[in-house]
Amino acid sequence: MSQSVSAPISDNPAAQLRSPGTKEFIQETVALTRRLFIQLQRRPTTLVAGVIQPLMWLILFGALFQNVPSDLFGESRNYGQFLGAGIIVFTAFAGALNAGLPVMFDREFGFLNRLLVAPLASRFSIVVASALFIATMSLIQTTAIVGLSAVLGAGLPGPAGLLLMTVIVLLLVFGVTALSLGLAFTLPGHIELLAVIFITNLPLLFASTALVPLSFMPPWLQVIASLNPLSYAIEPIRYIYLHSDWSFTSTVMRAPFGDISLGLAVGLLLIFSVVALATIRPLISRRIS
After folding, report:
1. Most buried of 153, 182, 184, 283 (most Cβ within 10 A)?
2. What one-character DSSP code corresponds to residue 271?
């Protein structure tokens, strides 16, 4: 079912002499992104299901643990308030992890080869378009979760807090999207990609601070959760929800190896995203060249 990506354009001297321009790169990135939104418009159930699923998680998990003593969840007034940050981050992570699937299907059905023979200024626009689409979807889902959390009594951060939450979500989305696209160009078919997604998804959720605080976990799981990038997105967002006077020096997580400040958590997410993009870009370039 899977097809190897051929490289017919590399034999085209005119294409090799073509110098990539910023205007052409933006133009083709916009066109490729628009194609993904047209696909979404033709299959609106994808968007509807993507928004409803995290809201169901928020409602059902919040109801399931509503009678748990509130002092188990730190400064949160109830489990619903504690859970909101975890649902936001996990939803963005799951969406980004699936980013490679459309590219994989394009490979298998041959559409990717049509793109590769097109006179693109840079084939990396294929990657950027996928990242922009997933980022937009994640922001739509995040907005719905934040709105429902406010209705359920979790409160609402100020404008600066909402802006920082957006930055945190986007950093995580760009990094995970890069990894997912790298897998889409590396694995032989969508069955293998789905297997990796299923194996990765839930273990990373349970090995993070999305559902319970770090102090609630056994020591070995605390170490794993402290190394999980999801925890570095969840804890800053949770702190922003609970503290209107937040600053980048505020301690948001007490890991086994030391305290993590809000600024350090955001910086580590930035490093994760940059390293993921820098690592995956040469691989993708080799695969599509």
Report:
1. 184
2. H
